[in-house]
Amino acid sequence: MIRSFGNEPPLLADGRRAPDRREVSLRWLSGTFLTGITSSVLMGVALFAALDGRQQLAIPAEAYASVNADTHTDTDVTRGSRLVASAIAAKPSDRRIMEVSTVVHEGDKEVVRRQPFARVKMTLAANHVATEDYPSFNPLTIFSADESDAQPTGRTGQIYGSDVESEVSLKTVAYPTTKSDLQVAPGMTLDEIEENVRSNGSVLTDGAAQVAALYYVDPRRFSNDDSDVDLAAGLTARVLEQNMTVSAPESITPQTEEFADDIIPVRQDTSIIKAMADSGYPEPQAKGVSGYLSPLIGSDELSKGDVLRIGILQRGEQAKIIRASVYRGARHLVTVALDDHDRFVAGREPPQIDAVTTAFDDNSTSVPSNQNLPRVYDGIYRAALSYGMTKDMTALIIKLLASSVDFQAELRPTDTLEAFFSVADSNGQATADSELLYVNARFGDTQTTFYRFQDPEDGSIDYFDQDGKSIRQFLLRNPVPNGIFKSGFGMRRHPILGFARMHTGVDWAAPRGTAIIAVGNGTVEKAGWDSGGYGNQTIVRHANGYESSYNHQSAIAKGVVPGAKVRQGQVIGWVGTTGESTGPHLHYEMIVNGTKVDPLRVRLPGGKSLKGDALAKFEDERQRIDTLLGNQPPPQVASK
């Protein structure tokens, strides 16, 4: 339909009527309008996809940039993205079972015994599959305390400084200062002493080595010469078993050589070169391995269901292929390995590992490098349970990390968790009696490390950082973890009185009956009705002049009475609307030396700090754990 907007007749062109700028077609106008809208939508979608793709591709780059620059060197194998995710067997440092001597106080004796411990390093963003169900995220459960948190058992004891072959009982008694009931043997002459040294010296041992000779006579015994004499000189011999080499223990560092198996399942007929290339190996390396395997299996093709097992020697970011094997189903076909001259030759079947038989399982532990990473909370539980830790032990880690980690945030590929805990046997499975001794967690740029320690003064067990400060907060800022912030500290118009008035606390809204927890350890100062408008009120006195006040409660928990001791996280009451209140909420106040302060802004002191003998013993315990784990000492910072 044509609609005219002018008085002049339309122009003609070659006898055909042409549109004029003074005329417009509604059909043409609607088509142009729809074309513009469609173009804008398509460009917006393309721009969003491009920006989203750039954000996703930045994640592996961030992970790569987190590695020290000096380790970005040319490698024999360059790991890349996989077309088909493969199961990668854990490296030796990812999971390690070790026998450790510990000492436990039993009555008046100290019992030293060996027991297995597991040290695990977990990449949390991997596709771990939990071996059992775990509780859903609930902030109240995380911050609240239960009876098991009140006093850990200390069944494991402390790390003993020396290894023992079997269980040893030690008892310390006071040296007798008065006459002893024991008969004193007659004194020995010098000749008898030297004869004893000669006869007993031949059977003395130093660790696992036998010492065959000792000094028999002190060269200074018959001389008044004060000159330095080398007492270390002398003839000694170490008796070793045949084909045994004695070497000093070497701590595991990022540059320590480690062996790992890369398991590549073949899901369709393909060549050896393509299977390795799709898994991230450079083409020259893939051709080299194929050239050695093909003559032995009679073809350079792999069949559907085959498994290619690549043995890699890793050192930091550098990796070198030292072995390659082909399996058809569960049957070993062929293996080639490097000899002493760095040439691949036919070899025997390597020791069997479960990763070969489970190569086609979907429970791959490869790390996803793009989207849909789980939450921090789920990542910790899935990894910990898959590595043999119990739900209670994992819940303890969650509680200890709660003050520094956002459990609702999405995991990053670089997030890791290292733990050291006692286990039942060499299988590395923790039990109800297992105890957590050490945790090192890294989330983004934040690293948290803490050690278990039993205070010799009061026997209490807690977790401390490397400086001997408790990892637990002195006071929490929110007594209703799942509450909603409604009103802050400061001047405001009173909702009932109708005029401006100082609001001396913070309001947290929650449904009636929601649990209220104590923000810290302390003593109940008041628990009951307040006639000044606070309704059911509880006041807890903490250390160093701090007090916390909980108001408008629907009810106060049983046992919360003046003089009672409460623990941080203990449920002390429930949200209500008693007193001068317009709805269910908790009016929470913090009092410091008699003055009410803003609970959300006041600077809170740290937790308990070890001092004196307790700190010295903690440093000894920390040093023993660090030595067992091969941790590097923290850098020393000079100060003026």
UniProtKB/TrEMBL annotation:
<keyword id="KW-0482">Metalloprotease</keyword>
<keyword id="KW-0812">Transmembrane</keyword>
<keyword id="KW-0472">Membrane</keyword>
<protein>
    <submittedName>
        <fullName>Peptidase M23</fullName>
    </submittedName>
</protein>
<dbReference type="GO" id="GO:0004222">
    <property type="term" value="F:metalloendopeptidase activity"/>
</dbReference>
<feature type="domain" description="M23ase beta-sheet core">
    <location>
        <begin position="501"/>
        <end position="599"/>
    </location>
</feature>
<keyword id="KW-0378">Hydrolase</keyword>
<dbReference type="GO" id="GO:0006508">
    <property type="term" value="P:proteolysis"/>
</dbReference>
<feature type="transmembrane region" description="Helical">
    <location>
        <begin position="26"/>
        <end position="51"/>
    </location>
</feature>
<dbReference type="InterPro" id="IPR050570">
    <property type="entry name" value="Cell_wall_metabolism_enzyme"/>
</dbReference>
<keyword id="KW-1133">Transmembrane helix</keyword>
<keyword id="KW-0479">Metal-binding</keyword>
<dbReference type="Pfam" id="PF01551">
    <property type="entry name" value="Peptidase_M23"/>
</dbReference>
<keyword id="KW-0645">Protease</keyword>
<dbReference type="InterPro" id="IPR016047">
    <property type="entry name" value="M23ase_b-sheet_dom"/>
</dbReference>
<dbReference type="InterPro" id="IPR011055">
    <property type="entry name" value="Dup_hybrid_motif"/>
</dbReference>
<dbReference type="GO" id="GO:0046872">
    <property type="term" value="F:metal ion binding"/>
</dbReference>
<keyword id="KW-0862">Zinc</keyword>
